Design the sequence.
């Protein structure tokens, strides 16, 4: 396959993020663009389309807006997102400000600068964004860093095993034939 474009959807009770991921294996390129859920495209608010069950309209709108034909989808809830992050291990990020959260009744503060975030920390990093736009930018950053840090595995003979493992961790219309 020359390329594969998929839409990664993070939704639990509400739509959290939409990320368009275009993979061009022969060129070794991956393009990621996240859309804030409250974005309005052609008069349509993305989160409203999602909440009203208008998934096909949402896909068509994002395809025409981005210029990429969305071929597959991956949808994760909070638990599945945590499992995906934990599968690959911590994700590197440069914090621009302190990351503060509670875990098991303890207050945790991570200082600005280079950090490696586990799934819980990644979720707090996204939740503490001051706007939908910043949350989408952080989502792009986390996805890109996770891919970059695991590129050697994704480009190795192990990719089929990894792919099969990932299929079990999310709801998707991807199949082994998409490799």
Sequence:
């Amino acid at each position: 396959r020359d390329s594969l474009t998929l839409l990664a959807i993070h939704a639990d009770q509400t739509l959290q993020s939409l990320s368009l991921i275009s993979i061009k294996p022969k060129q070794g390129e991956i393009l990621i663009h996240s859309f804030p859920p409250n974005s309005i495209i052609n008069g349509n608010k993305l989160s409203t389309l999602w909440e009203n069950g208008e998934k096909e309209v949402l896909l068509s709108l994002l395809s025409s807006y981005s210029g990429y034909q969305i071929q597959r989808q991956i949808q994760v809830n909070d638990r599945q997102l945590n499992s995906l992050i934990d599968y690959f291990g911590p994700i590197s990020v440069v914090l621009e400000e302190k990351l503060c959260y509670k875990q098991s009744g303890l207050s945790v503060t991570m200082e600005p600068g280079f950090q490696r975030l586990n799934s819980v920390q990644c979720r707090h990093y996204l939740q503490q964004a001051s706007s939908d736009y910043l949350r989408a930018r952080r989502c792009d950053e986390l996805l890109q860093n996770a891919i970059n840090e695991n590129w050697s595995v994704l480009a190795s003979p192990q990719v089929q095993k990894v792919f099969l493992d990932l299929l079990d961790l999310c709801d998707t219309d991807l199949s082994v034939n998409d490799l």
Remarks:
- Helices lie at 46-51, 55-66, 78-88, 119-127, 132-149, 151-154, 159-168.
- The radius of gyration is 16 Å.
- Residues 132-149 form the longest helix (18 residues).
